[in-house]
Amino acid sequence: MQVLKLVIGWIARHFVLWILLIGALLVWNAWQVGAERELRADALEQALTEIETRREVGENALREAEADARGRSVEVLQGMLAEAKAGRAPLIGQRRSDLKRRASIALADSDAIIADQTLELEIAVATRKIAGLERSIAATEAQLDRAAMMTAAIRAWRDADAKWRRAAAACDAATERVDRYEARRGLDRFFGSITGQGRRLRSIRDEQCSGVAALASRAGRVKEILDETRRGGAAAARAGAWSQERLESADTTLREAVAREREGAEGSARAQIRKKWTDWGMTAILWQAFFALLLLIATPYLIRLLFWFVLAPLAERRPSIRIAVPGGVGAPMPPADPSKTSISVTLDKDEELLVRQDYLQSSSVRGAKETQWMLDTRHPLSSLASGLWFLTRIRGADEVTTISAVHDPFAEVTAITLPDNGAAVLHPRALAAVVQKQGQPLRITSHWRLFSLNAWLTMQLRFLVFHGPARLIIKGGRGVRVEPAGAGRIFGQDQLVGFSADLAYAVARTETFWPYFLGREQLLKDRVLDGEGMLIVEESPMAGRKGAGPRGGLEGAMDAALKAVGL
Question: What is the pLDDT of residues 301-316, one digit of tens each?
Answer without folding.
Answer: 898 898 889 888 888 8
